[in-house]
């Protein structure tokens, strides 16, 4: 890389890290450092020496590090006032309707699953998901006299009861947690 | 011997942290200078060998604090250079820092003179 290219690269990187400054300020910093670099190169050449561009860069330090010294005054400042939030919470209240809807919905599903598990224990193979032989329709529900003779399939059995109990417990737990949060913000 | 040198440069760096501003204000008092000129000037002193990466951001801060003002000037065929000179505020601050510096030196001299007595 030629000297001019590496100078350009260094200054471009510096400009990138100075982006917190106003453009005029950053331009001024870049211009000053650029002038310094070319002054040093010229002085070396006049003295009959080969300028060591890397040595000059080392004197200034890494672009990121150098830039951080120029922008440190922007980073230092008064901390935001107590209670300041960059994003305002527009509404944190929870209406009673939402709370009780959640309660009925969540616990309702939970109890329905438990009811299913119990009924399934006494009447296995009548509750479940049924699909017809050709697979073009399914039925979810209670078929006391399911006709499986024409090749219809049943997705049912005693094993559904423990599964339903586990699902009911999970649903119960989640509802309980959600309600606890909602209650804290209840108007 | 090497360890002495290490201690010396460590001490210089520590002391400079507090005194560099004073040194720069004093260096700029006779006449405005541009960065490279000021750097070369400082480098002629044994304990003032600072890097470009230290000098330029500091000059930027002194200007922001209103202690110096800067202007681009062109001399002859040379490319424009940014010259820094003291403002009234800078001269005032130099006076204060100078007095404190002399006080510190006097205090330390007294302590050093009193050792072993």
Overview of the structural elements:
The complex is a heterodimer of chains A (187) and B (117). By secondary structure, chain A is mainly α. Chain A is 60% helix and 7% strand. Chain A has six helices and three strands, in the order αααααβββα. Chain A has helices at 3-17, 23-46, 53-60, 63-75, 96-122, 160-184; strands spanning 127-131, 138-142, 153-155. Chain A has a three-stranded antiparallel beta sheet. In chain A, a hairpin with a 6-residue loop joins β1 (127-131) and β2 (138-142). In chain A, α1 runs antiparallel to α2, α1 packs parallel to α4 (63-75) and α5 (96-122) packs antiparallel against α6 (160-184). The two termini of chain A are 68 Å apart. The mean pLDDT of chain A is 83. By secondary structure, chain B is mainly alpha-helical. Chain B has one domain (12-115): Orthogonal Bundle (Arc Repressor Mutant, subunit A). In chain B, 65% of the residues lie in helices and 12% in strands. Chain B contains four helices and three strands. Chain B has helices at 2-28, 35-43, 52-64, 88-114; strands spanning 33-34, 68-73, 81-86. In chain B, strands 1-3-2 form a three-stranded antiparallel beta sheet. In chain B, β2 and β3 (81-86) form a beta hairpin. In chain B, α1 packs antiparallel against α4 (88-114). Chain B starts with a helix and ends with a helix. The relative contact order of chain B is 0.13. The mean pLDDT of chain B is 93.
